[in-house]
Specification:
Layout: H1 3-7, E1 9-11, E2 17-21, H2 24-27, H3 40-46, H4 53-56, H5 62-76, E3 80-84, H6 87-90, H7 100-115, E4 119-125, H8 131-134, H9 143-159, E5 165-170, H10 172-180, H11 195-216, E6 222-228, E7 232-234, H12 239-261, H13 267-276, H14 286-290, E8 296-300, E9 305-309, E10 318-320, H15 337-350, E11 355-360, H16 377-395, E12 400-406, E13 425-428, E14 434-437, H17 439-450, E15 452-454
Parallel strand pairs: 2-3, 2-12, 3-4, 4-5, 5-6, 6-8, 7-9, 8-11, 11-12
Antiparallel strand pairs: 1-15, 9-10, 13-14
Helix pairs in contact: 5-7, 9-11, 10-11, 15-16
Bound molecules: 5-hydroxymethyl-3,4-dihydroxypiperidine.
Length: 465
Amino acid sequence: MAESDTCRLLGFPDGFLWGVATAAPQIEGGLDLDGRGESIWDRFARRGGVAGGLGALEACDHYRRWEEDVAHLADLGVGAYRFSVAWPRVFPTGGGRPDRRGLDFYRRLVDALVKRAVRPAVTLYHWDLPQALQDRGGWANRDTAYRFCDYAATLFRHLGADVPLWMTHNEPFVVAYLGHVTGEHAPGLRRPWLFARVAHHLLVSHGLAVRAFRQLAPAGSRIGITLFLWPQQPASDRPADVAAARRADAAVNRWFLDALLKGDYPADVRRYLARRLAGPPVRPGDAELIAEPIDFLGVQYYSRVVHRADPWNLFQGSRQLPPAGPTTAMGWEIYPEGLYEVLTRIHRDYGPVPLYVTECGAAFDDRPAADGRVHDPQRVAYLRDHLVQLHRALTAGVDVRGLFVWSLMDNLEWHHGLDRRFGLLYVDFDHGRRRIPKASFAWFREVVRQNAVAMPGPAGGGEDE
Ligand code: IFM
Protein backbone atom coordinates (compact mmCIF):
# COMPACT_ATOMS: atom_id res chain seq x y z
CA MET A 1 0.00 0.00 0.00
CA ALA A 2 1.34 3.44 -0.91
CA GLU A 3 2.17 5.72 2.00
CA SER A 4 -0.32 8.37 0.91
CA ASP A 5 -3.06 5.74 1.15
CA THR A 6 -1.94 4.76 4.64
CA CYS A 7 -2.23 8.37 5.78
CA ARG A 8 -5.88 8.49 4.77
CA LEU A 9 -6.85 5.45 6.84
CA LEU A 10 -8.74 5.76 10.08
CA GLY A 11 -7.78 2.64 12.04
CA PHE A 12 -9.93 0.76 14.56
CA PRO A 13 -8.67 -1.05 17.68
CA ASP A 14 -7.27 -4.57 17.35
CA GLY A 15 -10.02 -7.11 17.77
CA PHE A 16 -12.76 -4.67 16.79
CA LEU A 17 -15.63 -6.91 15.65
CA TRP A 18 -17.02 -6.20 12.19
CA GLY A 19 -20.28 -7.84 11.28
CA VAL A 20 -23.53 -7.67 9.37
CA ALA A 21 -27.05 -8.26 10.65
CA THR A 22 -30.37 -9.73 9.52
CA ALA A 23 -33.55 -11.01 11.18
CA ALA A 24 -35.52 -14.20 10.55
CA PRO A 25 -38.87 -12.67 9.52
CA GLN A 26 -37.09 -10.30 7.15
CA ILE A 27 -35.11 -12.91 5.22
CA GLU A 28 -36.14 -16.50 5.86
CA GLY A 29 -39.42 -17.03 4.03
CA GLY A 30 -40.27 -20.75 4.07
CA LEU A 31 -43.41 -19.91 6.00
CA ASP A 32 -44.90 -23.37 5.58
CA LEU A 33 -41.72 -25.39 5.77
CA ASP A 34 -40.79 -27.89 8.43
CA GLY A 35 -43.72 -27.25 10.72
CA ARG A 36 -43.13 -23.54 11.31
CA GLY A 37 -46.07 -22.06 13.20
CA GLU A 38 -47.97 -18.91 12.34
CA SER A 39 -46.35 -15.67 13.45
CA ILE A 40 -48.06 -12.36 14.19
CA TRP A 41 -46.52 -11.02 10.97
CA ASP A 42 -48.19 -13.74 8.87
CA ARG A 43 -51.55 -12.78 10.34
CA PHE A 44 -50.84 -9.06 9.97
CA ALA A 45 -49.82 -9.52 6.30
CA ARG A 46 -52.97 -11.57 5.59
CA ARG A 47 -55.00 -8.67 6.93
CA GLY A 48 -53.27 -6.22 4.58
CA GLY A 49 -50.72 -4.78 7.00
CA VAL A 50 -47.70 -5.48 4.73
CA ALA A 51 -47.15 -4.04 1.25
CA GLY A 52 -47.10 -7.04 -1.10
CA GLY A 53 -49.17 -9.17 1.27
CA LEU A 54 -48.23 -12.58 2.56
CA GLY A 55 -46.07 -13.23 -0.53
CA ALA A 56 -43.66 -10.52 0.57
CA LEU A 57 -42.92 -12.54 3.69
CA GLU A 58 -41.24 -15.14 1.49
CA ALA A 59 -38.58 -12.41 1.40
CA CYS A 60 -35.11 -13.70 0.47
CA ASP A 61 -35.91 -17.41 0.71
CA HIS A 62 -32.97 -17.67 3.07
CA TYR A 63 -34.48 -20.74 4.73
CA ARG A 64 -33.64 -22.64 1.55
CA ARG A 65 -30.66 -20.60 0.37
CA TRP A 66 -28.80 -20.21 3.65
CA GLU A 67 -25.67 -21.97 2.40
CA GLU A 68 -25.29 -19.46 -0.40
CA ASP A 69 -25.72 -16.64 2.12
CA VAL A 70 -23.09 -18.10 4.41
CA ALA A 71 -20.73 -18.22 1.42
CA HIS A 72 -21.35 -14.47 0.91
CA LEU A 73 -20.54 -13.85 4.59
CA ALA A 74 -17.28 -15.74 4.20
CA ASP A 75 -16.49 -13.72 1.09
CA LEU A 76 -17.18 -10.50 2.98
CA GLY A 77 -14.71 -11.61 5.63
CA VAL A 78 -16.77 -10.41 8.60
CA GLY A 79 -15.93 -11.65 12.07
CA ALA A 80 -19.57 -12.00 13.10
CA TYR A 81 -23.06 -12.47 11.73
CA ARG A 82 -26.05 -11.27 13.71
CA PHE A 83 -29.27 -13.14 12.90
CA SER A 84 -32.44 -13.95 14.77
CA VAL A 85 -34.12 -17.22 15.55
CA ALA A 86 -37.77 -17.53 14.53
CA TRP A 87 -39.67 -18.40 17.69
CA PRO A 88 -42.50 -20.00 15.61
CA ARG A 89 -40.01 -22.44 14.07
CA VAL A 90 -38.82 -23.64 17.43
CA PHE A 91 -42.15 -23.54 19.26
CA PRO A 92 -44.86 -23.37 16.56
CA THR A 93 -47.54 -22.55 19.13
CA GLY A 94 -45.28 -20.63 21.50
CA GLY A 95 -44.66 -23.41 24.04
CA GLY A 96 -44.83 -27.15 24.67
CA ARG A 97 -42.17 -29.33 23.06
CA PRO A 98 -39.66 -27.70 20.72
CA ASP A 99 -39.81 -28.72 17.06
CA ARG A 100 -36.62 -30.57 16.24
CA ARG A 101 -36.68 -29.37 12.61
CA GLY A 102 -36.57 -25.73 13.67
CA LEU A 103 -33.73 -26.33 16.10
CA ASP A 104 -31.81 -28.30 13.50
CA PHE A 105 -32.00 -25.48 10.98
CA TYR A 106 -30.24 -23.08 13.37
CA ARG A 107 -27.77 -25.78 14.41
CA ARG A 108 -26.75 -26.23 10.75
CA LEU A 109 -26.46 -22.48 10.27
CA VAL A 110 -24.34 -22.04 13.42
CA ASP A 111 -22.07 -24.95 12.47
CA ALA A 112 -21.52 -23.52 8.98
CA LEU A 113 -20.66 -20.10 10.41
CA VAL A 114 -18.27 -21.50 12.99
CA LYS A 115 -16.56 -23.55 10.27
CA ARG A 116 -15.87 -20.33 8.37
CA ALA A 117 -14.70 -18.44 11.48
CA VAL A 118 -17.76 -16.17 11.45
CA ARG A 119 -19.00 -15.77 15.02
CA PRO A 120 -22.76 -16.28 15.41
CA ALA A 121 -24.53 -13.43 17.24
CA VAL A 122 -28.09 -14.51 17.97
CA THR A 123 -31.12 -12.33 18.64
CA LEU A 124 -33.85 -14.27 20.38
CA TYR A 125 -36.77 -11.98 19.59
CA HIS A 126 -36.85 -9.92 16.44
CA TRP A 127 -40.62 -9.37 16.45
CA ASP A 128 -42.08 -12.66 15.21
CA LEU A 129 -44.24 -13.71 18.14
CA PRO A 130 -46.10 -17.01 17.60
CA GLN A 131 -49.68 -16.04 16.77
CA ALA A 132 -50.92 -18.56 19.35
CA LEU A 133 -49.39 -16.38 22.08
CA GLN A 134 -50.89 -13.23 20.58
CA ASP A 135 -54.28 -14.96 20.77
CA ARG A 136 -53.71 -15.08 24.53
CA GLY A 137 -52.88 -11.38 24.79
CA GLY A 138 -49.33 -11.30 23.41
CA TRP A 139 -46.92 -8.99 25.19
CA ALA A 140 -49.79 -7.33 27.04
CA ASN A 141 -50.06 -10.62 28.95
CA ARG A 142 -47.28 -11.20 31.48
CA ASP A 143 -47.40 -14.92 30.77
CA THR A 144 -45.70 -14.27 27.41
CA ALA A 145 -42.58 -13.25 29.35
CA TYR A 146 -42.44 -16.69 30.96
CA ARG A 147 -42.97 -18.39 27.60
CA PHE A 148 -40.11 -16.31 26.21
CA CYS A 149 -37.85 -17.46 29.02
CA ASP A 150 -38.62 -21.13 28.24
CA TYR A 151 -37.87 -20.51 24.57
CA ALA A 152 -34.63 -18.70 25.42
CA ALA A 153 -33.51 -21.49 27.76
CA THR A 154 -34.12 -24.07 25.01
CA LEU A 155 -31.80 -22.16 22.69
CA PHE A 156 -29.14 -21.61 25.35
CA ARG A 157 -29.09 -25.38 25.89
CA HIS A 158 -29.13 -26.19 22.19
CA LEU A 159 -26.71 -23.64 20.74
CA GLY A 160 -25.07 -22.05 23.76
CA ALA A 161 -21.65 -23.60 23.34
CA ASP A 162 -21.18 -22.16 19.85
CA VAL A 163 -22.77 -18.73 20.17
CA PRO A 164 -20.51 -16.13 21.79
CA LEU A 165 -23.03 -13.25 21.64
CA TRP A 166 -26.71 -13.38 22.52
CA MET A 167 -29.28 -10.62 22.39
CA THR A 168 -32.60 -11.09 24.14
CA HIS A 169 -34.65 -8.47 22.28
CA ASN A 170 -34.40 -6.28 19.26
CA GLU A 171 -35.60 -2.70 19.91
CA PRO A 172 -38.38 -3.29 22.46
CA PHE A 173 -39.46 0.34 21.96
CA VAL A 174 -40.49 -0.46 18.39
CA VAL A 175 -42.49 -3.50 19.49
CA ALA A 176 -44.37 -1.47 22.10
CA TYR A 177 -44.83 1.66 19.99
CA LEU A 178 -45.30 0.60 16.36
CA GLY A 179 -47.01 -2.66 17.33
CA HIS A 180 -49.36 -1.30 19.99
CA VAL A 181 -49.63 2.51 19.66
CA THR A 182 -49.54 3.36 15.94
CA GLY A 183 -50.49 -0.11 14.67
CA GLU A 184 -47.98 0.04 11.79
CA HIS A 185 -46.37 -3.20 12.91
CA ALA A 186 -47.86 -6.52 13.93
CA PRO A 187 -50.00 -7.15 15.87
CA GLY A 188 -51.35 -3.87 14.46
CA LEU A 189 -52.99 -2.51 17.62
CA ARG A 190 -53.79 1.16 18.21
CA ARG A 191 -54.03 1.14 21.97
CA PRO A 192 -51.63 3.73 23.37
CA TRP A 193 -52.50 2.74 26.93
CA LEU A 194 -50.76 -0.60 26.28
CA PHE A 195 -47.36 1.01 25.66
CA ALA A 196 -46.01 0.85 29.22
CA ARG A 197 -47.54 -2.56 29.86
CA VAL A 198 -46.07 -4.16 26.74
CA ALA A 199 -42.69 -2.47 27.21
CA HIS A 200 -42.61 -3.66 30.81
CA HIS A 201 -43.36 -7.28 29.94
CA LEU A 202 -40.70 -7.23 27.23
CA LEU A 203 -38.17 -6.03 29.78
CA VAL A 204 -39.32 -8.57 32.37
CA SER A 205 -38.84 -11.31 29.77
CA HIS A 206 -35.36 -9.94 29.08
CA GLY A 207 -34.46 -10.14 32.80
CA LEU A 208 -35.82 -13.68 33.09
CA ALA A 209 -33.78 -14.77 30.07
CA VAL A 210 -30.59 -13.16 31.43
CA ARG A 211 -31.02 -15.05 34.70
CA ALA A 212 -31.57 -18.32 32.80
CA PHE A 213 -28.50 -17.57 30.69
CA ARG A 214 -26.29 -17.23 33.79
CA GLN A 215 -27.25 -20.76 34.77
CA LEU A 216 -27.17 -22.42 31.38
CA ALA A 217 -24.67 -20.72 29.12
CA PRO A 218 -21.02 -21.73 28.94
CA ALA A 219 -18.40 -19.39 30.34
CA GLY A 220 -17.19 -16.97 27.73
CA SER A 221 -20.48 -16.34 25.95
CA ARG A 222 -22.14 -13.01 26.63
CA ILE A 223 -25.65 -11.64 26.69
CA GLY A 224 -27.16 -8.20 26.11
CA ILE A 225 -30.10 -6.47 24.49
CA THR A 226 -30.36 -4.10 21.53
CA LEU A 227 -32.12 -0.75 21.77
CA PHE A 228 -33.48 1.68 19.22
CA LEU A 229 -31.62 4.83 20.29
CA TRP A 230 -32.30 7.98 18.28
CA PRO A 231 -31.60 11.44 19.66
CA GLN A 232 -34.86 13.34 20.30
CA GLN A 233 -34.09 17.01 19.86
CA PRO A 234 -36.15 20.21 20.33
CA ALA A 235 -37.07 22.30 17.27
CA SER A 236 -36.17 25.47 19.19
CA ASP A 237 -35.12 26.54 22.65
CA ARG A 238 -38.70 27.44 23.56
CA PRO A 239 -39.41 25.72 26.89
CA ALA A 240 -42.42 23.86 25.42
CA ASP A 241 -40.29 22.36 22.61
CA VAL A 242 -37.48 21.49 25.02
CA ALA A 243 -39.95 19.80 27.35
CA ALA A 244 -41.52 17.91 24.42
CA ALA A 245 -38.15 16.62 23.24
CA ARG A 246 -37.22 15.62 26.76
CA ARG A 247 -40.46 13.68 27.14
CA ALA A 248 -39.94 11.94 23.82
CA ASP A 249 -36.39 11.09 24.85
CA ALA A 250 -37.74 9.61 28.07
CA ALA A 251 -40.26 7.41 26.23
CA VAL A 252 -37.97 6.33 23.40
CA ASN A 253 -34.55 6.15 25.02
CA ARG A 254 -34.47 6.67 28.79
CA TRP A 255 -37.44 4.39 29.47
CA PHE A 256 -35.28 1.44 28.42
CA LEU A 257 -31.81 2.70 29.32
CA ASP A 258 -32.82 3.71 32.86
CA ALA A 259 -34.74 0.51 33.55
CA LEU A 260 -31.92 -1.70 32.28
CA LEU A 261 -28.92 0.21 33.55
CA LYS A 262 -30.23 2.20 36.54
CA GLY A 263 -32.96 -0.09 37.80
CA ASP A 264 -35.96 2.24 37.46
CA TYR A 265 -38.16 3.93 34.90
CA PRO A 266 -37.68 7.69 34.51
CA ALA A 267 -40.03 9.40 36.96
CA ASP A 268 -41.10 12.13 34.52
CA VAL A 269 -42.43 9.86 31.79
CA ARG A 270 -43.84 7.44 34.33
CA ARG A 271 -45.93 10.24 35.84
CA TYR A 272 -46.91 11.47 32.39
CA LEU A 273 -48.02 8.01 31.19
CA ALA A 274 -49.83 7.22 34.44
CA ARG A 275 -51.76 10.51 34.17
CA ARG A 276 -52.65 10.34 30.48
CA LEU A 277 -52.67 6.64 29.62
CA ALA A 278 -51.48 3.88 31.96
CA GLY A 279 -48.23 3.17 33.79
CA PRO A 280 -46.29 -0.12 33.78
CA PRO A 281 -47.71 -3.00 35.89
CA VAL A 282 -44.61 -3.35 38.08
CA ARG A 283 -44.56 -6.20 40.59
CA PRO A 284 -42.17 -6.49 43.55
CA GLY A 285 -38.75 -7.60 42.31
CA ASP A 286 -39.32 -6.48 38.71
CA ALA A 287 -36.93 -3.54 38.87
CA GLU A 288 -34.05 -5.79 39.99
CA LEU A 289 -34.99 -8.42 37.43
CA ILE A 290 -34.93 -5.93 34.55
CA ALA A 291 -31.63 -4.47 35.74
CA GLU A 292 -29.96 -7.89 35.97
CA PRO A 293 -26.40 -7.09 34.83
CA ILE A 294 -25.83 -7.51 31.10
CA ASP A 295 -22.49 -8.04 29.37
CA PHE A 296 -23.06 -5.47 26.65
CA LEU A 297 -25.63 -3.13 25.19
CA GLY A 298 -26.51 -3.13 21.48
CA VAL A 299 -26.98 0.34 20.03
CA GLN A 300 -29.13 0.66 16.89
CA TYR A 301 -28.79 4.02 15.30
CA TYR A 302 -30.20 5.41 12.06
CA SER A 303 -31.26 9.04 12.52
CA ARG A 304 -32.67 11.66 14.89
CA VAL A 305 -36.10 13.18 15.51
CA VAL A 306 -36.79 16.89 15.98
CA HIS A 307 -39.84 17.81 18.09
CA ARG A 308 -42.24 20.72 18.18
CA ALA A 309 -44.61 20.83 21.18
CA ASP A 310 -48.16 19.75 20.30
CA PRO A 311 -50.62 19.23 23.15
CA TRP A 312 -53.00 17.38 20.80
CA ASN A 313 -50.67 14.43 20.51
CA LEU A 314 -51.92 12.16 23.25
CA PHE A 315 -48.87 9.94 23.39
CA GLN A 316 -46.01 12.37 23.80
CA GLY A 317 -47.42 15.87 23.41
CA SER A 318 -45.31 16.74 20.38
CA ARG A 319 -45.10 16.34 16.64
CA GLN A 320 -42.03 15.54 14.58
CA LEU A 321 -40.66 18.09 12.15
CA PRO A 322 -39.83 16.92 8.62
CA PRO A 323 -36.10 16.36 8.12
CA ALA A 324 -34.16 19.47 7.20
CA GLY A 325 -31.37 17.78 5.23
CA PRO A 326 -30.85 14.80 2.92
CA THR A 327 -32.71 11.61 3.74
CA THR A 328 -32.56 7.91 2.97
CA ALA A 329 -35.33 6.04 1.14
CA MET A 330 -37.01 5.65 4.52
CA GLY A 331 -37.37 9.42 4.71
CA TRP A 332 -34.96 9.46 7.64
CA GLU A 333 -32.56 12.37 7.91
CA ILE A 334 -28.93 11.45 7.35
CA TYR A 335 -27.33 12.62 10.58
CA PRO A 336 -24.08 10.76 11.32
CA GLU A 337 -23.17 12.99 14.30
CA GLY A 338 -26.11 11.40 16.11
CA LEU A 339 -24.15 8.15 16.42
CA TYR A 340 -21.41 9.98 18.30
CA GLU A 341 -24.02 11.73 20.45
CA VAL A 342 -25.74 8.48 21.38
CA LEU A 343 -22.54 6.58 22.16
CA THR A 344 -21.01 9.33 24.28
CA ARG A 345 -24.31 9.92 26.04
CA ILE A 346 -24.55 6.29 27.17
CA HIS A 347 -20.96 6.41 28.36
CA ARG A 348 -21.57 9.67 30.24
CA ASP A 349 -24.97 8.90 31.77
CA TYR A 350 -24.78 5.16 32.35
CA GLY A 351 -21.13 4.38 32.95
CA PRO A 352 -18.70 2.29 30.98
CA VAL A 353 -21.00 -0.46 29.70
CA PRO A 354 -19.43 -2.32 26.73
CA LEU A 355 -21.26 -1.36 23.55
CA TYR A 356 -21.74 -2.85 20.13
CA VAL A 357 -23.40 -0.93 17.34
CA THR A 358 -25.68 -3.82 16.46
CA GLU A 359 -27.33 -1.98 13.55
CA CYS A 360 -26.30 0.88 11.32
CA GLY A 361 -27.25 1.22 7.67
CA ALA A 362 -29.44 2.90 5.10
CA ALA A 363 -32.05 2.16 2.45
CA PHE A 364 -31.61 3.65 -1.01
CA ASP A 365 -33.35 2.99 -4.33
CA ASP A 366 -30.70 0.66 -5.69
CA ARG A 367 -31.07 -0.87 -9.16
CA PRO A 368 -28.65 -2.89 -11.27
CA ALA A 369 -27.00 -0.68 -13.91
CA ALA A 370 -26.59 -1.56 -17.57
CA ASP A 371 -23.34 -3.34 -16.68
CA GLY A 372 -25.34 -5.62 -14.34
CA ARG A 373 -23.62 -4.20 -11.26
CA VAL A 374 -25.23 -2.27 -8.42
CA HIS A 375 -23.48 1.02 -7.73
CA ASP A 376 -24.53 2.48 -4.37
CA PRO A 377 -22.20 5.37 -3.56
CA GLN A 378 -24.81 6.88 -1.22
CA ARG A 379 -24.64 3.82 1.05
CA VAL A 380 -20.85 3.87 1.02
CA ALA A 381 -20.88 7.56 2.00
CA TYR A 382 -23.51 6.92 4.67
CA LEU A 383 -21.57 4.06 6.24
CA ARG A 384 -18.24 5.83 5.98
CA ASP A 385 -19.59 8.97 7.68
CA HIS A 386 -21.08 6.91 10.49
CA LEU A 387 -17.84 4.99 10.97
CA VAL A 388 -16.03 8.29 11.29
CA GLN A 389 -18.40 9.26 14.10
CA LEU A 390 -17.94 5.88 15.73
CA HIS A 391 -14.20 6.39 15.57
CA ARG A 392 -14.65 9.79 17.23
CA ALA A 393 -16.53 8.11 20.07
CA LEU A 394 -13.74 5.54 20.47
CA THR A 395 -11.21 8.34 20.63
CA ALA A 396 -13.34 10.01 23.32
CA GLY A 397 -12.97 6.83 25.42
CA VAL A 398 -16.28 5.07 24.73
CA ASP A 399 -15.99 1.29 24.95
CA VAL A 400 -17.40 0.20 21.58
CA ARG A 401 -16.43 -3.36 20.68
CA GLY A 402 -17.85 -3.77 17.20
CA LEU A 403 -20.30 -2.73 14.51
CA PHE A 404 -22.86 -4.68 12.49
CA VAL A 405 -24.09 -3.22 9.21
CA TRP A 406 -27.81 -3.46 8.62
CA SER A 407 -28.12 -5.45 6.48
CA LEU A 408 -26.35 -8.32 4.77
CA MET A 409 -29.00 -8.29 2.04
CA ASP A 410 -32.07 -6.43 0.84
CA ASN A 411 -35.00 -7.83 2.76
CA LEU A 412 -38.52 -7.35 4.04
CA GLU A 413 -38.68 -3.91 5.60
CA TRP A 414 -41.74 -4.85 7.65
CA HIS A 415 -44.95 -3.03 6.63
CA HIS A 416 -43.11 -1.37 3.72
CA GLY A 417 -42.61 -4.72 2.01
CA LEU A 418 -39.62 -5.44 -0.22
CA ASP A 419 -38.72 -2.12 -1.82
CA ARG A 420 -36.71 -0.46 0.97
CA ARG A 421 -33.28 -1.82 0.15
CA PHE A 422 -30.82 -1.84 3.08
CA GLY A 423 -28.54 -4.62 1.84
CA LEU A 424 -24.90 -4.92 0.92
CA LEU A 425 -26.24 -7.67 -1.35
CA TYR A 426 -28.88 -6.69 -3.87
CA VAL A 427 -31.70 -9.24 -3.98
CA ASP A 428 -33.55 -9.51 -7.27
CA PHE A 429 -36.98 -10.34 -5.89
CA ASP A 430 -38.45 -10.62 -9.41
CA HIS A 431 -35.92 -13.05 -10.81
CA GLY A 432 -35.29 -15.98 -8.54
CA ARG A 433 -34.07 -13.81 -5.66
CA ARG A 434 -30.60 -13.76 -7.12
CA ARG A 435 -28.06 -11.99 -4.89
CA ILE A 436 -25.75 -9.41 -6.47
CA PRO A 437 -23.01 -7.89 -4.31
CA LYS A 438 -23.36 -4.09 -4.42
CA ALA A 439 -20.38 -1.76 -4.56
CA SER A 440 -20.85 -1.21 -0.81
CA PHE A 441 -20.21 -4.94 -0.30
CA ALA A 442 -16.74 -4.59 -1.81
CA TRP A 443 -16.18 -1.35 0.11
CA PHE A 444 -17.12 -2.94 3.45
CA ARG A 445 -14.93 -5.96 2.70
CA GLU A 446 -11.99 -3.56 2.50
CA VAL A 447 -12.97 -1.91 5.79
CA VAL A 448 -13.00 -5.33 7.46
CA ARG A 449 -9.75 -6.43 5.82
CA GLN A 450 -7.88 -3.29 6.81
CA ASN A 451 -9.69 -2.77 10.12
CA ALA A 452 -9.83 0.82 8.99
CA VAL A 453 -11.89 3.27 6.98
CA ALA A 454 -10.34 5.04 4.04
CA MET A 455 -11.11 8.74 4.26
CA PRO A 456 -11.96 10.59 1.06
CA GLY A 457 -8.93 12.60 0.14
CA PRO A 458 -7.39 14.47 -2.73
CA ALA A 459 -6.82 11.17 -4.52
CA GLY A 460 -10.58 10.58 -4.90
CA GLY A 461 -13.43 9.09 -2.90
CA GLY A 462 -13.04 5.44 -3.89
CA GLU A 463 -16.76 4.92 -3.39
CA ASP A 464 -17.15 2.45 -6.18
CA GLU A 465 -15.33 -0.65 -7.20
O1 IFM B 1 -35.22 -3.39 9.38
C1 IFM B 1 -35.16 -2.82 10.66
C2 IFM B 1 -34.71 -3.84 11.68
O2 IFM B 1 -35.54 -4.95 11.70
C3 IFM B 1 -34.72 -3.23 13.06
N1 IFM B 1 -34.00 -1.97 13.09
C4 IFM B 1 -34.26 -1.01 12.07
C5 IFM B 1 -34.19 -1.66 10.70
C6 IFM B 1 -34.50 -0.62 9.61
O3 IFM B 1 -35.77 -0.10 9.78
